[in-house]
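Consider the following input, taken from an annotated entry for dUTP diphosphatase (Thalassotalea euphylliae).
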Amino acid sequence: MSTQTVATTQISQMLAMQDAMNSRVSDTWRENGYEWYRAIWVECAEMLDHHGWKWWKHQEIDVPQVQLELVDIFHFGLSLRLMTGASVDDIATTLTDELAHTSDETDFKLALEQLASAAVSNREFNAQAFADCMRLMHMDLDELFRQYVGKNTLNFFRQDYGYKEGTYIKVWHGKEDNEVLADVVAKLDTSANDFQQQVYDALAANYPS
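Applying the prediction step yields:
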């Protein structure tokens, strides 16, 4: 299977998962008028704090946290693309192409501002700017897929195990569920067709009984 085919397959899976997550929040999410574009630029501003931008003080780049914020933004970007009404196959093909064509930008802050600008000015998801941000944070599509599927699956798992009711256990054997998730996804093969189910099953196996 070619690299492009794998990328398109992964993006198709993430689109389907995003639709499922949005539908769990509201069956009519496409008609509800949610401002996905606004969520993107707000996340961009939050991400900048994790990256650092203040020239008057020393700041260290928190790469893992910036990557997590990028994953959150991709949730919103996928939702915006799904709102266009195009088919999942068409969106996946387009995104595969756009994410593969990065610019020569070397300053993460400027790439991030391109992403935010498109969201503010045009209410759209600039996939090329997003790809630049990923590249400058040492994140490839496989890592995006790994973290996206993990976060999506954990959100579903929390709901299934009593998150709304307040009975969900957040700390598992001395580790927060996010830490357990990171350990789980690092050991699994992202190319497996049932990768999401493997993540869910692993979470269930680790959940305190």
